Each structure stands twice: as structure tokens, then as C-alpha cells.
Amino acid sequence: MSAIPNLYLKWRAFRELIGMPLSDAQIGAQIFGEGREGAPKFSKLIYGDYGCSPEIAVELASIINKRLDTSRRGRGLPALDAGLKPGDLTLPLHAFIRRLEAIVETSDADSRDRAQQALLSDLAPAFGQPGSARLVVERFSMTRSMGGFLPSGGEGPIIFEAGKHKGRLAVRGIDRQPAMAYTFLARDPRPLGQHSWDFNWSETLSWLPSPSRPAFVEGELLLMPQAAPINPTPGRFLATSVLLWDETARAALDPRGASADPDALDEAQTSRFLTNLRRLQRRKPEAVTASGAEYEVRV
After folding, report:
1. Which residues lie closer than 8 Å to 29 by C-beta, 6 or more apart?
2. Could you tell me where the beta strands, DSSP code E, fall in the chain?
3. How far apart are CA 20 and CA 23, in angstroms?
4. Residue 221: Cβ within 10 Å count
5. How confident is the model over 106-130, as pLDDT tens digits?
6. Angle, CA 213 vertex, CA 158 and CA 155 arms, to 5°
7. 165-172 vs 228-229, strand pairing mode
8. Tens digit of pLDDT for each residue in 175-185?
9. In the chain, what is the straight-line distance between the N-terminal and C-terminal CA atoms, in Å?
10. Which long-range contacts (CB under 8 A, 24 or more apart) does 201-204 make?
11. What's the CA gap between 84 and 59, in Å, rounded?
């Protein structure tokens, strides 16, 4: 079995939904043996740097199933019969979470909310973070400008009404044009009483074709050349803009390689992109700038 780039998201969801008293270091020791290598190997495993062999998949599924069984027994349910299969580790993220919930047969509202918030913190890592660069949301009516820029960390999301408003994303607070930009949206459907895994991945995360080379006009980087009608999909949306200043760092950021054409990234590519972004921010912070903002769509 090859590496699983989104395993860290699945593991995070499992911890928040079900709970796990053991630390990652302890889990690593169980899988890879006692010693100094267990914790770093487990970290590499869940972030897709280390191949998930059939033997490792069996061991990890067994650890998860023991915890699922404990959760069931603690609530007076029968012992676990058919648990998570090793192959389930390769399921899409949302299908994996639905599988966990079906096996454990419950997940309370608080744990579901924690899991949703944890996933959004991974999928929109720049939201609420301070910085001079600010992703802003601009709202227009179909006939005239409505004004209203929302810098990241503002007092509340701009509200769009489908069929009435158009929107545009831009970055302010920078003084030059970056080499390229990556821009995507993560949907939070909790205002509708739902969670991301109630939908398919493609219904909760979308990309502008990336990388793009947006124009820098009058002190503002226009991630979209013009305002576009709002998609009639209700919910809260977290927008993320990643500006790459050093084109030579593209290979370290984009999992498709340094010469990929602008396009949407799929689930595995997005998961790896976010891992690469975090690492690039630590190792070469001057090469990349990430910022985030939010808005809400009502239908």
C-alpha cells in the first residue's frame, strides 16, 4: 500500500470524534516498536511521507478498532463485530468519517463540532492569522458596487445572497506582485445544521484554477479579474490565498510539480499541498504568504 496523503486529516477526525487517550508517540511505538524512531515514523506515515504497507495498515486499523470497541462498550452497545478494515484507511476523507460514525453508532453534537472545527483549521490554515497581507472579500450587487471589504480577522463575514450579489477576492497589504497564487475555498455547512462529511469532498472544497498569475492593480492583487456571480450553495466559506514569491519554491509547494498547468487540485493533492505549505512556511517563510477571510452565502 502506498502513502496516504490525507491520512493526517482522517486521524485528526478520529481523535476528535471518538477520542484517543494514547499520544501519537505511543501509537508510533506500538506500530514501529519502542525507541526513538516510533514517533517520527508515525508522523511521516500520517502525513504521507512514509508508505502505508499492508502490515502497517492492519496494525493501525486494529488500534482504531480497539478504541471504537471501547467507545461502544462504554455506552452499553454490543462489542464491535465488523470494524474498520485496513483498506478503509484509503477511503476519501468524508467517506472514512461516515464509516467511523456507522461503526461506533453515535457521535454527539459536541464531538462532531470539534471534528468539524479541527478539519477547518487544517483546511483553512491562514484564517484568523495575523499578517500584513490581507485577503479581502468584495461584494457587488448585480448592477452596482456594494462596497464592504472584509479583511481577515474582521468583525464578521460578508453575507451574500445568491442571485443578488457577485463577489471578488483580492489581497491587500502587499507592495508588489508575487510570482503566482493559489486560491481555494473550504465550506463550513454548520449554519445549515450539517457537517462537511455529510457531503462529498467536491461539494465542500473548491479551487480557482491554480497557480494563477493575478494582476497587481493600484495596490491590490486581484485574485479574480472581475466579480463573478455567487454560487447558490449555502453555508459559511473560508477562503485561503497562498502567494508564492519565489518561483523556485514551487516544486516544494505544489504536489503536481513545478510545471503543472493551472487547475483544481483533487483531495489527495490538496491534502499534500497543505502539508507542503506548512513546511515551506517553517523552512523558508520569505517564499510564501498565506492569508484567509470568510463569507456566508444565503439562498
Report:
1. 35, 38, 39
2. 134-141, 150-151, 158-161, 165-172, 180-188, 205-207, 215-217, 220-222, 228-229, 235-244, 288-298
3. 8
4. 23
5. 778 899 999 999 999 999 998 878 7
6. 20
7. antiparallel
8. 999 999 999 99
9. 43
10. 201/92, 201/93, 201/94, 201/267, 203/233, 204/94
11. 11
